[in-house]
Design a protein that fits this description.
By secondary structure, the protein is an alpha+beta fold. About 40% of the residues lie in helices and about 20% in strands. The chain binds coenzyme A. The site of coenzyme A has 22 residues, from helix 3, strand 4, helix 5 and helix 6. This is Acetyltransferase (GNAT) family protein.
Length: about 230
């Protein structure tokens, strides 16, 4: 199957409309997705694992990282392909807000974003879409700075950061990228809600297709009559 077809919007295909880029439904992940997240991260090998985590974490450390994600504090997003595999994960970790002191305004609230897309799904705009969603969620959660740490040799991520208008500070082969965000407005709230609703529908559809396929595969096959 053409890998682009994994994310094609069936409605556009039916209408015969060309899509510049496939639709990417970004879904918020929860507790129940932990196992799939572990599977996703374990598929990142060598350099990709270094780029995502800053060092070559062992499988055990990756599993620990996922087990340590606090879904009450942070937000995690994912993208599923047609085969219901989690091909991309974005983790938005909110830093605790420092309480305002007398006569001093409260400090800016910051969130850090980390993202990974499996090799088979790269170049389709998924990484950018996850980043865009993180920005909207930050705005809607009163976060004014979105932060990302990566190696400055990570040209793809540097490209995404520059495209989003991030300020980048490079030092000793590493880069810190900051994006100042506008406060929430009705359109940012609406966009987040609509994206999540679309992704929830997409998720339910893919989960049902997956369940039906499994069931079909388990059905006993009728034996062909023996004509000999
Ligand atoms: C970085 C990563 C998340 C990007 O995911 P992706 O889904 O392929 O990204 P997108 O398709 O949204 O965008 C890729 C962009 O980089 C551009 N690009 C591709 N190769 C490039 C290169 N060598 N140099 C510069 N830009 C490049 C593409 O043209 C595209 O830009 P466009 O949208 O303006 O056309 C993915 O490569 C990945 O998981 N890497 C390993 C982990 C990692 O580096 N994480 C980031 C640190 S937290």
């Amino acid at each position: 199957m053409n890998r682009l077809n994994l994310f094609r919007n069936p409605l556009n295909r039916w209408l015969g409309r060309e899509e510049a880029r496939p639709t990417v439904p970004v879904k918020e992940l929860r507790e129940r997705d932990r196992r799939r997240m572990v599977r996703h991260f374990l598929l990142l090998e060598g350099r990709d694992r270094v780029l995502r985590f800053g060092s070559l974490l062992s499988d055990e450390q990756v599993t620990k990282y996922v087990a340590g994600i606090d879904f009450k504090r942070d937000m995690v997003f994912g993208v599923y392909n047609r085969m219901f595999r989690l091909v991309a994960v974005g983790h938005l970790a909110f830093a605790p807000r420092e309480p305002a002191k007398e006569g001093v305004t409260a400090k800016a609230r910051v969130a850090e974003f980390g993202v990974s897309v499996l090799k088979s799904a790269r170049g389709l705009g998924i990484g950018s879409k996850l980043f865009e969603r993180a920005g909207i969620v930050c705005r809607n959660n009163d976060v004014d700075t979105l932060y990302m740490h990566c190696l400055s040799s990570n040209q793809v991520m540097m490209h995404i950061a520059k495209k989003a208008g991030m300020a980048i500070e490079r030092e000793h082969g590493e880069a810190d990228a900051y994006l100042k965000l506008l406060p929430a407005d009705p359109s940012s709230v609406m966009r987040e809600a609509m994206q999540e609703q679309l992704a929830t529908l997409d998720y339910a559809l893919k989960a049902n297709v997956r369940r039906a396929t499994k069931l079909w595969e388990r059905l006993p096959r009728r034996k062909k009559p023996d004509n000999s």
